[in-house]
Fold:
Amino acid sequence: QVQLVESGGGLVQAGGSLRLSCAASQTILNNYVINWYRQAPGKQRELVALITSANIMHYADSVKGRFTISKDNAKNTVYLQMNSLKPEDTGRYYCNAVQLTGGNYGPSYWGQGTQVTVSS
Structure:
């Protein structure tokens, strides 16, 4: 079992910044695709950003140029740096890890989520 622990959420004014962290219980970053999702009340869960084992990053159009996903292999941690935050960014953010070994997808793991609230 892989445990994912998220932190860094909070209340911030529009235009401000937050950095979310997703810490894994073991060394998995080289064999997993890591995704950040978010979900607002009454809204469908959406993919915000992802990073592959080859350090290729992708972002939702709504956050391009404002959010940056990165990882620290030594700390088994993935980060989501969020700048120029907007009220529309409000939601609960979840870390998701999907195993990819030898070209085959394996188990998927989820964190508990961390709340991000952006005031107008």
Notes: The mean pLDDT is 94. The longest strand covers residues 91-101. The radius of gyration is 14 Å. The chain has no helices and eleven strands.
